[in-house]
Amino acid sequence: MSVWDDVVGQPDAVATLRRAATDPAAMTHAWLLTGPPGSGRSVAARAFAAALQCTGTDGETGGCGRCRACTTTLAGTHPDLTVVATDKVVITIDEVRDLIMTAARTPSSGRYRVIVVEDADRMAERTTNVLLKAIEEPPPHTVWVLCAPSAQDVLPTIRSRCRGVVLRVPPAQDVADLLVRRDGIDPAVALTAARAAQSHVGLARRLARDADARERRDAVLEIARRIRGVGDAVLAAGELVDVAKAEAVAATTERDAVEKAELMRALGVQEGDTLPPRLRSQLRQLEDDQKRRATRRQRDVLDRSMVDLLSLYRDVLVVQLGAAVDLVNAEHDGTVRALAADSTPEQTIRRMDAIGVARERLEGNVAPLLALEAMAVALRPQG
Ligand SMILES: [Zn+2]
After folding, report:
1. Quick one: 332 exposed, middle or buried, by C-beta within 10 A (0-12, 13-18, 19+)?
2. Which of 130, 215, 241, 341 has the highest Cβ tally under 10 A?
């Protein structure tokens, strides 16, 4: 057992990080881990942090997985580990200033002070510039581990000062093996989920364990078959947006309430009391953050729905071209074949393009319904 066990399908990246943790000559103080969503960036970052802190068991160092330094780092409770896991849209300049203060302190008990920033791409340029200086000349025991979807997602100035490690999309079988070993999921279910999630580890796990999540995904794929005309398309787009909204609300409501209660307690306000005016701005700040988080979540869910739809048309194309590769959506074989028989490869590619355009427009903050209606209209049969 080692801290690297859960970093699936990334032998090259693990070799690089492992070497750095054990060989001072291979060590650098600023790292940039990149890889597509679900490739396990944050898991790899935590494993690396643990390997750096590892004090060893029976002579095994570099992430033995058993010493206290390893276990507390993986659990996120090591005193010399700071993880910025943001589900807000942006990391604020104040947060980065706090981080820099933390980074300047010598480790209290560990070998290093490790700062992991999970979404280094969610920083405004001004914020990044503040961070730059800290990364450029870190104190000798401080290590920065920045994560982003791709190197192009961070400013060139940051990129040039970090050592890059690229994660790939892990093979579906590796993801399935992890689900079986770690979560005790049935091998067949695990493989279907890993394929459907296109090797996104977290999503595969959710699909394997949560029947509602599977149903939602099925519903999204069924939409492709249901769209016969413009009217259906508009309805389908509205449905996709509603489902995403509901999922965002379900995912955030409980947490929002807990955060609010915590803030009230911290401010010394009893439940049921009215908030004194001077404290209201703090509550408003929290509520704004929560609203942004819900918006982001909704966009993430929508993007995922479109990735699912893309995988369906990818399968359609596979059938149309007679390619000898596995279907992502083997359990939707009927839909795939019906769509394949009903259209040409050129039409399928045009549909995939339309989905890609909708994803870009969403990313660019176009109103979700608008972007999805245009997409859904392009999915209808072209005759
Ligand atoms: Zn250890």
Report:
1. buried
2. 241
Which H/E stretch holds residue 209?
helix 201-209
CA angle 232, 236, 238 (to 5 degrees): 120
For residue 210, the one-letter residue type is: D
> What predicted TM-score, i.e. pTM, was given to this entire model?
0.74
Q: Ligand 1: distance of its center to the CA of 98 in Å?
A: 28
Interval 159-181: pLDDT, tens: 999 999 999 989 999 999 999 99
**Ligand 1 centroid distance, CA of 46 (Å):** 13
Residues, CB within 5 angstroms of ligand 1 (ion): 54, 64, 67, 70
CA–centroid distance, residue 13 to ligand 1 (Å): 19
pLDDT tens-digit readout, 195-242? 999 888 888 998 999 888 888 889 889 988 889 899 999 999 999 998
120, 313, 118: which is closest to 202 by C-alpha? Answer: 118
How many angstroms from the chain centroid is the CA of residue 336?
Answer: 28
